[in-house]
Specification:
The complex is a heterodimer. Chain A is an alpha+beta fold. Chain A is built from 5 helices and 5 strands, in the order ββαβββαααα. Chain A folds into 2 domains: about 80 residues, Roll (Ubiquitin-like (UB roll)), CATH 3.10.20.30; about 70 residues, [2Fe-2S]-binding domain (DNA polymerase, domain 1, Orthogonal Bundle), CATH 1.10.150.120. Helices cover about 30% and strands about 15% of the residues of chain A. Helix content of chain B is about 30%, strand content about 20%. A 7-stranded mixed β-sheet of chain B has the order 3-5-1-12-9-10-11, with helices on both faces. In chain B, strands 7-15-14-13-8 form a 5-stranded mixed β-sheet, sandwiched between helices. The longest helix of chain B has 28 residues. Classes of the chains: A alpha+beta, B alpha+beta. At the A-B interface, α2, α3, α4 and α5 of A face α1, α17 and β28 of B.
Chain lengths: ~160, ~800
């Protein structure tokens, strides 16, 4: 076992890990941050996405020791300081961008990184940007709407109902 | 206009707050003090005889607390089939025992034969890998036709020809159907495969067993769509423990789509291990285990024939199907290809004569059971594909042919030749609406534009119906069900006027916590914010049959309405006493008990308080308290229906299919929350497009699962799908439940696959490939290219 330290959601944390301990496991089991989910074994589904120094990373294929002393943000760190939903989180609720909620943390983390890179994406850019995150419930329609709405764009134009 | 936050409002979901902030509580998120970890040893061969399992090396590894094998569970009961289906000759189906862990033989890749419990997950995994199983591999039975033809090689040694049942529906109609075919001016025949799918809820299955040696109470946290049914199966059938000594908690569940209806052996194993070790035992499936051991869906091979006159009037229909049930019977495996499939072959049409034959076949593959739609997608696909083929053969317009054959609005209630009574519908109206919202008249211009870009554009239709709101208990009992299919709600009004509603339905994405609160709020005039919906815990809820078969609203929602009505009725008695008038003089509206024409009134809160502080109360005739329970057993199935149009663009050089647009005009009866209904349709259509274009669970000839991860099982991703056009304005409310609701959860997955395939065939035909009349799903680029170049 090796001691690892890092910053998670703005707070310094440390814990004992094995060489094989994944970041997702360290967050969930070591720190009790169970908002980060594990949906597959092959880095395909994206339920485990967190930010490492602002970059979206799949924490199920990242070793905890590899991100020592880095700044990690998880879904638990995405709300506003007063606990209210961030603009992106609120857009997911407003547009019914989630159903069972299991893929949602990874979707929000990926979408946040996408918008940081590209503040006014097109529908096609949103779809391409979410390609590494699988949702089995929504058919993506309302997730795409939510991300476009969070970017301040008029979603009625792309998704008439 | 709906009341603010009441029935018909697109109320935002309250459950979203916890899911969006990482505070959801799924089974894998739960950790009990002192818990140990389980890992299962699973068969790597599809079919084999277990000669012995050497656990000595595993037991000697650090941290290992116990190793149990199939032999340790051999005396326990089996996990039963929920329905006993009769064969054509009257004999009862074959029901081989499904043990907790494989014993004697392993029957599919992933069949668990041992479980290790250790201090850590890593130790449990290491030890499971150290178990030495001596298994003699037997020839795998994978192909259904071969399984039926070969009497010597058997999945279950006692079952000849691997046939579970040979079902005819309705057998008495067979001769008349055959005679109609002989006399028919035209017969269209189509052989097709309804491809095997893996449901793939994003949350893998997980279970935590716990045992209190002081009280003898068991507790199971598990990923279930129906905790009471799981409790019943474990207690009464498998482990033989009293139901009142077992609590099943199904907390937040990350999607089900059918795969989490069923009881699985891992649940009983962690409970037994928890008792043996006197500490909690936790198991979480990885995705690979899910692919190998979750119940799969569909997997039918069908020949369908449609007899018509030359104008396209349907004269008779018959089908022969081989339905794969896999290695063991999962709980709904026998009803899915029979009473959820054969009874739907009338569709929305007035076909006078229908006969359906289904042989259910055991194979060395994972069990196959209900997956979103369950039997009804298989029926709809066969029917809508053969109609499309007939229209091409007779050069008829597919819209006009459907109109010609629809059951007319004045024919309801309508008894079909396959045993259902449709209560209401207007199929012409949804089709007309589809023509509008899908801009079908504009298709030719869009096709020409696609052609200028070198793409072949096609338009495909599907007009579908389903039977859901499952189900009337007496009817299903007569058909072989071993359970009733009512549902239950308790409305508990607290002294301070806020309300807890305990419901037997389970929400795993459907938004019950929001919608059920809307219903209670609407009926009682109490703000939704004062109403909590409690689900997923057998210790809190009276009973319930869970969520599947688009039943939550139609059945459990009706139970809620009945319980609310009882609360109102009791409230009227209390109000009459307090206001010193006759009970018949009390009216209740918008949260107020009043005497019309006077200023006498009591608020709902005042009545609730009086029920718990009964100082001025009719104690001689009425009990204190304000809590009512209702069990609701539906009088009939509900029959949602709709019309779907898909447009595709096919790249003739690569065979790649792009879904250009998808439009849905549905009749779900009364809609409680349009936003949530739209979301259900989007998700169902996405799964249907996945089935049509991308998804297939593939076993090779040795029974090895070739599609065991997301690397090789293709699920729709964001860039595979278009925006959807969804409409549910043409509704005919259900006539027999108090909400007039029909259900919407499965619709998209039922109606969409044939629309997609019909569109691709249309594109190829219009593109000059007139020899291509059918391609089996999934329509991958390779298959489409091969059809074009075949």
């Amino acid at each position: 076992m090796t001691k690892v330290t890092m910053t998670v959601n703005g707070k310094p944390v440390s814990g004992e890990v094995e060489g094989r301990t994944l970041l997702a496991s360290f967050l969930r089991d070591g720190l009790g941050l169970t908002g980060t989910h594990i949906g597959c074994d092959t880095s395909q589904c994206g339920a485990c996405v967190v930010h490492v120094d602002g970059v979206a990373v799949k924490s199920c294929t990242t070793l905890a020791l590899d991100v020592a002393d880095r700044a990690i943000t998880t879904i638990e760190g995405m709300a506003n300081a007063d606990g209210s939903l961030s603009v992106l989180q609120q857009a997911f609720q407003d547009n019914h961008g989630l159903q069972c909620g299991f893929c949602t943390p990874g979707m929000v983390m990926t979408a946040a990184a996408l918008l940081a890179d590209n503040p006014k994406p097109t529908e096609a850019e949103v779809r391409a940007g979410l390609e590494g995150n699988i949702c089995r419930c929504t058919g993506y329609h309302n997730i795409v709407k939510a991300v476009l709405a969070a970017s301040g764009q008029d979603v009625a134009a792309v998704a008439a109902e | 206009m709906p009341k603010d936050g009441g029935i018909g409002a697109s109320t935002k979901r309250r459950e979203d707050i916890r899911f969006l902030t990482g505070k959801g509580r799924y089974t894998a998120d739960i950790n009990l003090r002192g818990q140990a970890y389980a890992c299962f040893a699973r068969s790597q061969v599809a079919h084999g005889r277990i000669n012995g399992i050497d656990t000595a090396a595993a037991k000697a590894l650090p941290g290992v607390l116990a190793v149990m094998t199939g032999a340790d569970f051999a005396a326990m009961g089996g996990n039963p089939a929920g329905w006993l289906v009769q064969s054509r000759g009257g004999e009862t189906m074959k029901e081989p025992k499904r043990p907790v862990l494989a014993h004697g033989k392993v029957r599919h890749v992933g069949d668990a034969y041992a479980v290790v419990v250790a201090e850590t997950l890593e130790q449990a995994r290491d030890a499971a890998a150290a178990i030495e199983a001596d298994i003699t591999e037997l020839p795998a039975i994978v192909n259904m036709a071969q399984a039926v033809a070969d009497a010597t090689n058997r999945v279950h040694d006692e079952i000849e020809n691997n046939v579970c049942f040979d079902w005819g529906w309705i057998e008495d109609n067979r001769a008349a159907v055959d005679a109609a075919f002989k006399a028919a001016p035209h017969v269209t025949t189509l052989k097709l495969v309804n491809n095997r799918l893996v449901p793939n809820a994003m949350e893998p299955r997980a279970s935590i067993g716990d045992y209190d040696s002081g009280t003898g109470d068991y507790k199971l946290y598990t990923t279930s769509q129906n905790p009471h049914l799981t409790r019943l199966l474990i207690a009464a059938f498998v482990m033989g423990i009293p139901e009142n000594k077992l609590t099943v908690i199904s907390p937040d569940v990350g999607g089900g789509f059918g795969s989490k209806i069923y009881h699985y052996g891992e649940e009983a194993a962690v409970l037994a291990a928890a008792k043996a070790l006197n500490r909690p035992v936790k198991w979480v499936a990885d995705r690979s285990e899910s692919f190998m051991s979750d119940a799969h869906g569909r997997d039918h091979e069908t020949t369908i024939q449609l007899a018509t006159d030359l104008q396209g009037n349907f004269l008779a229909l018959r089908t022969e199907t081989l339905a794969n049930v896999g290695a063991y019977l999962s709980n709904f495996a026998t009803v899915t290809p029979t009473f959820l499939h054969g009874t739907l072959m009338a569709g929305p049409y007035k076909t006078p004569l229908i006969y359906v034959n289904v042989k259910a076949v055991f194979t060395n593959t994972a069990p196959v059971d209900a997956y979103r739609g369950a039997g009804r997608p298989e029926a709809t696909y066969s029917l809508e594909r053969v109609i499309d083929k007939m229209c091409r053969e007779l050069k008829l317009d597919p819209v006009a042919v459907r109109r010609l054959n629809f059951i007319a609005p004045d024919q309801f209630p309508y008894t079909t030749p396959v045993g259902l009574v449709y209560d209401t519908g207007n199929y012409g109206a949804t089709l007309a609406r589809l023509v509008q919202i899908g801009d079908l008249k504009g298709f030719e211009a869009r096709r020409a534009a696609s052609a200028r870009r070198g793409k072949l554009r096609g338009l495909g239709l599907s007009t579908w119906i389903e039977a859901c709101g499952i189900a009337p208990s007496a009817l299903v009992g007569a058909l072989g069900a071993r359970v009733g299919l009512f549902d239950v709600a308790t409305v508990r009004v607290n002294a301070t006027g806020n309300i807890s509603v305990m419901v037997g339905a389970h929400s795993h994405g459907q938004g019950h916590e929001t919608v059920f609160a809307q219903i209670v709020s609407d009926r009682l005039g109490v703000p939704a914010s004062s109403i909590d919906i409690v689900h997923g815990d057998t210790s809190k809820i009276p009973f319930g049959m869970g969520s599947y078969g688009s039943r939550s609203l139609a059945v459990c929602g009706s139970a809620i309405v009945k319980a609310v009505d009882k609360v109102i009725a009791k409230g009227k008695k209390i109000a009459a006493h307090m206001l010193e008038v006759a009970e018949a003089d009390i009216a209740f509206e918008d949260g107020m008990f009043s005497v019309p024409g006077s200023n006498k009134a009591k608020t709902f809160g005042e009545i609730a308080f009086s029920a718990y502080v009964p100082h001025n109360y009719p104690l001689e005739t009425l009990e204190p308290g304000l809590e009512e329970t209702a069990f609701y057993d539906p009088a009939n199935f509900t029959y949602p229906a709709g019309a779907y149009a898909c447009e595709v663009e096919v790249d003739p050089d690569t065979g790649r299919v792009e879904v250009a647009s998808f439009a849905c005009a549905d009749d779900f009866g009364n809609v409680m929350n349009p936003m949530i209904v739209n979301g259900q349709v989007h998700g169902g259509v996405a799964q249907g497009i996945g089935q049509a274009l991308l998804e297939a669970a593939v076993y090779d000839g040795n029974g090895q699962l070739l599609t065991g991860s997301y690397m090789d099982y293709a699920m729709p991703r964001a860039d595979d799908l278009p925006m959807f056009t969804v409409d549910h304005s043409c509704n005919t409310p259900c006539t027999h439940n108090p909400l007039g609701a029909k259900g919407c959860g499965e619709a998209g997955a039922i109606g969409s696959p044939p629309a997609v395939v019909n569109a691709v065939i249309d594109a190829l035909q219009r593109g000059g490939h007139s020899n291509v009349t059918h391609i089996d799903m999934p329509l991958t680029p390779a298959r489409v290219w091969a059809a074009i170049n075949g």
